[in-house]
């Protein structure tokens, strides 16, 4: 999408060059230059814009400088909208200085001013910024529902394109806090889509970090680590506050993996970065995490030191979740020191577990179980053990459901993003047409003779631009349709088969199905995949459908040792589709042994694959199955048609019937050149 957007911009720029040159010459001849007074005012307001930008950029790195820039901007500007832009940014300083109520009052004052102004782009974007900031306030106050209300209001304004990813990240954080991981993932992926489409690379670090946190919540350590490593590549270039959050969350990753030494190193790095700052919320949050790590390392004095530093702050803002966490740590220390009276007293301080994250609830229950065992209260110990097992089981069950929901969310998002992309293109085309028409009218009014000379040239260029844009949109629609149809087609076929083959091995087969769904969604996001991945996918598909075909199915794989499976690439599902057609259309109703053979060879010019079966043969005009739509082969042929147009040496996909010596069956031949380019241009 990023490459596509850049190309469209370049086309527009080149095709409009002569038009703009003509307009500029005409305007210079007739209008002359602007007055000195207007020029001075413009420079003054440009300076104000620079000051506001510098102030916002300095908020998390140099608060005194931010105050200076924003105060100067408010003093200089004569534009009330810019004044409140600087005023709103200045109010964020109070957040950072832990003066939350003062900051909120300033933002509400800005909102009151904006509500009296007529609707315009500047007004809506600034209002979106204020709603976003109020949402952040409620997030800090541990009120996610209120935070989401204001963040959604910000989204409805709507905000500027440049600020959308930040808003999506904030929404994701609140849904993650509420335990709604699929919705949290959805907003992060929206943010990533906007960042890719408009070259907003600065947002990829927090988005990757957020996705790492999502998969950590699912205890999918492998995928969590992948996203943390992506974020870590840009760590040296990030702002101070982003570095602190990354170190803290990376420490949580190692904590849940029970790698406490690595966890401590991450938290200590965050502590060092926060040492000389006034960011009390982050600072005390890190203290609480360090305290818990020291408890698990059995360094009780250090544990006490850090929770005693953190607790007063969170009491002052009544942050129930973190106070519950600190209480659990204190109980753990008291139990470790055999101070049972203190442990009982701490136990009574918490009156309710409502709204507490299951992970933290499980930790506290474990310490209470140890307390009961040490005091020979075996009945209570059993009850705590049972409660902890229920919590842990619910975590595992929730994680499974969240994974499935995550798959569904990714699938639905593909179609949504395509519609948004097409809408953006449509609006862009309408705006460009309006701009060109306006310039053309001005040119004709001012310089009739010049418009007569250049009119034909301008119209010709405009038509060329419309024609090229039409070709671009056709290509986008073809590629989009192919990518969005192949995944639902495959899922429909597999799920339809599963509904007809439920047996005692249902649980294992459902796990295989989920794996296939995940892989199919991942594959639709790529124009090519490793051959080894396609082979693994095809084998899993065969395994899932074996029972339906029957016990008399024989599958043979003959892969040449000269084929580099880890480097050779192939179009997604290019191998799976002929295998699916053999199992679904070739073998049903057939008596005797059923044979399926896959042979992969390396030739001088590329990789050649043969998929052969002894089924009923290939009959494209016949009705082989009541559920057959022909989508798979049609989509594959469309993909090859588009990709081959970009390559000198073509890929091949041939289907032949076997009809010699009384035998029947189908033979599919696939050829992929060594240097085949999988690019849509």
TrEMBL record:
InterPro entries of this UniProt entry?
Answer: Bact_2-comp_sensor_kinase (IPR050640), HATPase_C_sf (IPR036890), Sig_transdc_His_kin_internal (IPR010559), TPR-like_helical_dom_sf (IPR011990), TPR_rpt (IPR019734)
Q: What is this protein called?
A: Signal transduction histidine kinase internal region domain-containing protein
The keyword Transmembrane belongs to this UniProt entry's keyword annotation = yes
Q: Which domain of life is it from?
A: Bacteria
Which sequence ranges are marked TM in the entry?
439-459
Q: Which keywords belong to this entry?
A: Membrane, TPR repeat, Transmembrane, Transmembrane helix
Which cellular component appears as one GO term in the record? membrane
**What GO terms are given for molecular function?**
phosphorelay sensor kinase activity
Q: Which organism is it from?
A: Bacteroides graminisolvens
Signal transduction histidine kinase internal region domain: from which residue to which, for each copy? Answer: 480-553
């Amino acid at each position: 999408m990023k490459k596509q957007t850049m190309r469209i911009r370049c086309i527009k720029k080149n095709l409009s060059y002569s038009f703009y040159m003509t307009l500029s010459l005409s305007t210079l001849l007739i209008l002359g230059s602007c007055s000195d007074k207007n020029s001075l005012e413009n420079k003054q307001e440009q300076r104000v814009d620079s000051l506001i930008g510098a102030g916002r950029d300095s908020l998390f790195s140099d608060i005194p400088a931010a105050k200076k820039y924003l105060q100067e901007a408010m003093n200089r500007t004569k534009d009330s909208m810019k004044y409140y832009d600087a005023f709103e940014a200045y109010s964020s300083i109070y957040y950072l200085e832990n003066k939350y109520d003062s900051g909120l009052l300033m933002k509400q004052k800005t909102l009151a001013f904006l509500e009296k102004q007529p609707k315009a782009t500047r007004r809506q974007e600034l209002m979106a910024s204020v709603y976003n900031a109020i949402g952040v306030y409620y997030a800090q106050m541990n009120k996610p529902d209120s935070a989401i209300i204001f963040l959604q209001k910000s989204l409805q304004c709507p905000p500027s394109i440049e600020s959308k990813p930040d808003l999506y990240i904030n929404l994701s954080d609140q849904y993650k806090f509420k335990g709604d991981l699929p919705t949290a993932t959805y907003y992060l992926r929206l943010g990533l889509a906007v960042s890719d489409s408009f070259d907003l690379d600065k947002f990829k670090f927090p988005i990757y970090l957020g996705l790492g946190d999502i998969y950590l919540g699912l205890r999918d350590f492998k995928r969590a680590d992948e996203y943390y490593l992506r974020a870590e590549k840009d760590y040296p270039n990030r702002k101070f506050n982003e570095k602190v959050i990354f170190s803290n969350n990376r420490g949580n990753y190692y904590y849940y993996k029970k790698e406490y030494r690595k966890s401590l190193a991450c938290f200590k790095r965050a502590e060092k970065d926060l040492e000389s700052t006034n960011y009390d919320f982050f600072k005390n949050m890190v203290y609480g995490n360090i305290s818990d790590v020291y408890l698990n390392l059995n360094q009780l004095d250090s544990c006490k030191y850090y929770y005693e530093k953190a607790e007063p702050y969170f009491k002052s803002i009544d942050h129930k979740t973190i106070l519950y966490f600190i209480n659990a740590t204190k109980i753990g220390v008291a139990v470790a020191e055999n101070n049972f009276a203190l442990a009982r007293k701490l136990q009574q301080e918490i009156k309710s577990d409502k709204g507490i994250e299951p992970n933290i609830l499980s930790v506290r229950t474990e310490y209470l179980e140890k307390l009961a065992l040490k005091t020979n209260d075996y009945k209570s110990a059993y009850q705590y053990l049972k409660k902890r097992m229920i919590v842990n089981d619910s975590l595992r069950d929730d994680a499974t459901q969240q994974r499935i929901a995550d798959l569904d969310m990714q699938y639905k998002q593909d179609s949504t993003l395509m519609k948004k992309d097409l809408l953006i293109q449509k609006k862009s085309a309408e705006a460009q047409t309006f701009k060109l028409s306006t310039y053309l009218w001005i040119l004709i009014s001012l310089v009739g003779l010049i418009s007569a000379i250049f009119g034909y040239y301008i119209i010709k260029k405009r038509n060329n631009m419309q024609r090229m844009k039409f070709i671009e949109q056709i290509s986008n629609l073809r590629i989009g349709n192919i990518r969005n149809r192949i995944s639902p087609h495959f899922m429909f076929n597999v799920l339809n088969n599963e509904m007809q083959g439920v047996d005692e091995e249902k649980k294992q087969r459902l796990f295989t199905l989920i794996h296939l769904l995940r892989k199919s969604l991942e594959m639709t996001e790529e124009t090519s995949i490793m051959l080894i991945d396609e082979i693994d996918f095809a084998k899993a598909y065969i395994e899932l459908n074996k029972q339906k075909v029957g016990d008399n199915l024989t599958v043979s794989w003959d892969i040449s040792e000269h084929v580099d499976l880890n480097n050779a690439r192939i179009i997604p599902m290019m191998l799976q589709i002929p295998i699916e057609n053999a199992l679904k259309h070739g073998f049903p109703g057939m008596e005797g042994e059923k044979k399926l053979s896959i042979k992969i060879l390396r030739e001088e010019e590329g990789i050649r694959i043969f998929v052969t079966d002894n089924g009923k043969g290939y009959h494209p005009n016949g009705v082989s199955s009541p559920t057959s739509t022909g989508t798979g082969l049609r989509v594959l042929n469309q993909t090859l048609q588009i990709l081959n147009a970009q390559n000198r040496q073509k890929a091949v996909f041939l289907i032949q019937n076997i009809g010699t010596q009384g035998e029947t069956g189908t033979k599919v031949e696939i050829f992929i050149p060594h240097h085949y380019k999988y690019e849509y241009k």
